[in-house]
Structure formats: C-alpha cells, structure tokens
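User: Hello! I'm new to structural biology and keep hearing that structure can be predicted from sequence alone. Could you demonstrate with Penicillin-binding transpeptidase domain-containing protein? Please show me the input and the output so I can see what each looks like.

Assistant: Of course. The first part below is the input, the amino acid sequence of Penicillin-binding transpeptidase domain-containing protein. The second part is the output, the predicted structure written as tokens.
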Amino acid sequence: MENKIKKLFIFSLIGIGILVVSAFIFVSMKAKSINVKQSENLINDYFTLLNEKKYDLMYDKLSDESKNEISKEDFVTRNKNIYEGIGTDNITINGIQVDVNGNDIVATFQCNMNTIAGILSFNNKMYISRTYDDFKIKWSSNLIFPELNNDYKVKVKITKASRGDILDRNDVKLATDSDVANIGIVIEELGENQKESLNEIAKALEVSSEYIDKKLSEPYVKPYMFIPIKVVSYSGDIVNKVSSLPGVVIKDKLSRVYPLEEKAAHLIGYVQNVTAEDLEKNSDKNYSVSSVIGKAGIESIYEERLRGIDGIKINIVDKNSDEVKVIYNREVKNGEDIKLTIDSKLQERAYDSLGNNKGASVSIDPNTGEVLALVSSPSYNPNDFVLGMSTDKWNELNTNENKPLYNRFQSNITPGSAFKPITAAIGIEENVLDPNADKEIVGLKWQKDDSWGGYKVTRVHDYGLPSNLENALIFSDNIYFARVALDIGAENFEKKLKEFGVGEKIPFEYGVSVSQFSSKDAIDNEILLADSGYGQGDILMNPLQLSMMYTMFINDGNILKPSLEYKENFEKSIWKDSVISRQTAEIILNDLKSVVSKPNGTAHGLSGLDFNVAAKTGTAEVKSSQDDEAGTEIGWVVATTTDKDKNILVTTFVEDVKGKGGSGYVIPIVKNILATQ
C-alpha cells in the first residue's frame, strides 16, 4: 500500500512537471509568435514609409541607440540621396524570416526595388531590439545595401546612349539628335524696363507673359540664374528674333530633330518622354524616367532598333572612393540607324505640290516595290512634340477642321474611276471582256432592266466612238465598267479581288488600313456590283495598296510587295504571283498610255513631260444617295512613267474637289511630282 502511494506521488509529480514544461513551451511559443509578428509589422511599416518617401517618419522607427549615432537630418539626407539618386520606387519585401534570441531579433528578407537600372534584387537583414512591447530598428547603412557601411557612399554613373538616325535612301537625315536652342532669361540682365522687355520676349517666343512671369517667380529663382523658357529649332526664325533682346540667353541643348518638319511628319513620327504607363508596359526593356520613346510613325515602328540603352553603373565606394562593391553595371548600347527607301527630295516635292489641299500622295518604284514618298496633307511639325507645345497649339491641332493630325496615306478611301483598270483586268482574265469589242453604249444613263427601279448608272461623255476598252478608259466610261462587272459576276469578281489582296493586310512595315470590296461579307446585289465595277459602291482602297495593284501592269501580272527599309542591291519581292497574264498586263498598260497621250484622255494634262506616262484618273463621289446634291468628291490620279530605267509610280488623291474640276484638279499636282524625274 505504501509503495502504491509512493508511485502515485511520483506520477503526480511527473504530470505536474509535464504541465509546467508544456505551459512554459506554450508561453515561449506565444511570445515568439508575438515577436515574429511585431517584427514583420515593423519591417513592412518601415518599407511602406520608404516607398512613400517619408524619411522623417522612418527615423521614428529607429532605436535610441541608433538615434544617438545619426541625427534625423543626416538620416533623411542619406536615405533620400541614395534611394532617389538611383531612382528607386516600388520597393517590395518578400520571404521574411525572423530569428528571436531574447530581446535581440534578426529578420532576413529579400528586397526588390525598381531603379534607373531596372529591378534590383538582393537579400538583406534588419536588426531589431525589443524593450517590453516596444520594437525598434538597430539601423545602419547596411539596411540600404548589405555592403554599405556608414562611411561608404553609393556612386551612380550614367553614360547616355544615342538614338539611331533615320535616313533616306541617299543618307539624308530625316530624324537625328542635334543641338537646338534652349532660350532662357537672366533677370539681372533685363535692364531697367523689365516689364517691357519681358513682353517683347513673350511675343517673340510666342508664349504668354503670364507663363514667363510664373517661371521667373518660382521660389528657387535668383537674379543671376538662367531660367529656361522655350526650346526651339535653330532652323526657324525665333532665334534671330530674340537673340538681341535684353535678358535673353541662348544655350545649346541636345534634342531629337526632324529636318523636314511638316513634310514628313506622318511618315517619320516623333518621340516623347516616357510616361508612367510606358514604363509599366515596358518594364522589362530598361527604360528609365529620363528615356524617350517613339510615339508615332517610323520612330514608333522601329523603336526597338532606334532606341539606345544608357550605360549605368551603380557601385559602393569607401571613404577613399575605392570601389567596394558593384551593385549593377550595364554597358551603353547606342541605337541603330534606320535607312529608308524614301527619297527626301521627292518627299518634299510631293508635300509642296499638295499645297494646302487635304489629301495624300504615295510614290513607289514600280520595278522594285520600294516606297519613295509617303505624304499626308495638311500636316504638323513633329519638332513641336519634342521641343514643347503650348496648350493653344495643341488645341488648334485637335480642333482644326482640316485635321492635320489625321494620316491620310494610311487610311482607306473610295477610289472611283482609278479602280477601273482593275475591273478591266479581271474581265479579260475571266474571258468575259474582249478589249476590242464595241459594247455599243448610247446615252449618258443606263440600267440593266426595270428591276433596278429608278437607279441608273451615269457617265460624263457620250463620246460617239466604239465603246471598247481603250475608249472606255480614255473617257472614263462608268457604264462600260458597270456592265463589265455584271458580266464577271459577283462571285468571280470577289474571288479575283481576293487574289489581288483586297481585304487582306498588306505586308508593309508601316501599317495601313485593310482595303475592302464590300461593307458586308459579299457584294449581294446587282446595283452594288455595277457600282463596284467603276470604283464606287462599297469599294475602299488605301492609296499604297492601289499603287501596288498597279504594279501588275508593269511586272507581267505580278503584284509586288512594298518595301520601306533600304537594302543595297535590293531585288523586288512578289506579293501576289501571276494574278493576271502578261498579255492582259500589256493591254491595260497600253490603254493607260492612251489616257495620257490622246487629247480626249482624262489624264492628257500629264503629257508634255520628257518621258512617257500611263495614268488613270478618278473622281469618287461621296454622298448618301444618287440624288444627294450636298455630297463631296475626291479626285484621284494614278500615274507611272514607262520608259525609264528606274520608273516612278505616283498615286495621289485630294479631298473636296467638287466644283474644282474633279480629278482634273489633281493633274497639275501629280505632274509637278513626276517632273522631279
């Protein structure tokens, strides 16, 4: 009995011991859990404040011991200079591991931060002290970078990269980095009549006096300081206007420059400083807040090759400026020059020829498919987007009824009679059109039968000659080509147009609108088919694609692929092979020569040059119905030289030619462009 009592007593003691140990372990684990949680909160709070650049509040998280070693002012200055010096933002902390040893706590974690060098990632530690329930950071500079001691510095060296030039086929610069005039004011040099001088400067710089007053009233401004007001090109007359004015100082500034200005704006485009959206979208491409990026045209299309990538070296140096640690090093990479097939002289000539008209002009080499000029008018000066544009100027561009920002050579438009050679080629290929046969058309109006109701196809001339293909092209006979389209039939017409690439994205570096033969899936009625035969109906064509379709008449029935990037010893590339026969191509081309050479030809105005020309005109009607009197007209001319080693094919349209002579209004424009040959 006594032994049993002893055993029970012993077991009771063991049980109590287990309970005590368990309670101790539980309390210890709970205390550790609290320490871990509090430490994690401290870390997250600290780096949240860092992301918000609240350095003074970060200082409040430091232990008293750390505060004795560094003042708030020095702490704020050091953190601000280092973090902002390397362009830090979006700092994230991952994988926090907390090791608790009494009141001493060590937390390890991975730190990720966006910088001017991209994303930097590294492992680091934070030492934390606990006094009762108060958790504080044992701070040193190692918390910024592990290798950064308190007497070390972070050194940043940026080697600026150059952006590649955009060149024409003869190495003329269409876009380049060059000095521009950074025009500013030094207050103490304005003289006695400051107000009068500032008003004169504002007028010359085409800015408001209020804008200048605001710039000069900034708190940091001192009378001896150069205060930049406007950046302009040296090619304009503004520099001459202001150079002799009191208080004006002009300094060189490197900038992107577009020498052809408005004449190549839609083609070349422009660059601008990157936005936050650009940086986010291209987060893996080494852009920084100081980068520029192509926003339109060739600058945007070839951005990856044109752009340079700055060289950046971030390293830690000791108090003797000796290198301790290289945090990041990227060699500079300059941008690549892009050479285009464009002829800058022809580009300028085409733009000047269009004058103040709303329209577009495309010039190609029909033997190779090389694009020689792409012009949209009216236009804008791309230098304004780079050098700085006033709100008034931006509003004027956007509200101008002539739409200078609208790229017309990139768009689709009704081709009118310029499309007739395409219909003729299909008719011959489908064996429904005998070029020599007389369709015996009489009168100015025609309809197939009474099922068309009141709708009739109209033509301008009852020319009293055989209604064969040559005369139909010479006099641009709508009735003739409406009947050809009906003879072909909708199904075969559509099939052949698809073979020509209509409705298909044209393979070209500069994206253009996709042409169409119907706004629906098919040409679904006879009237629409008839109208389509002479380039009306739902037919929409991009001027570049129409140009390329005409190359089949010069290249034995092959449609060439357009090219914009220049290559030495370039050989033509065929986009659509043998879409018509060589014989059909010869027939159409010879008849298009007659459109120019015959006195009654609609393009006879192109005769008299030192070379032979084949051409087709077109006056496209844009109206809601056949009886609409308020509609407008678009004038077209497609013309190609035919007897030169290097031919040129020019396609030009002008909007709003109603009452100006229709396509005849465009003839002098195209003739002036051709005269450059």
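User: So the tokens describe the shape?

Assistant: Right, they're a compact way of writing down the 3D structure. Reading them back into a model, for example: Residues 345-388+408-674 form a domain with the Beta-lactamase fold (CATH 3.40.710.10).
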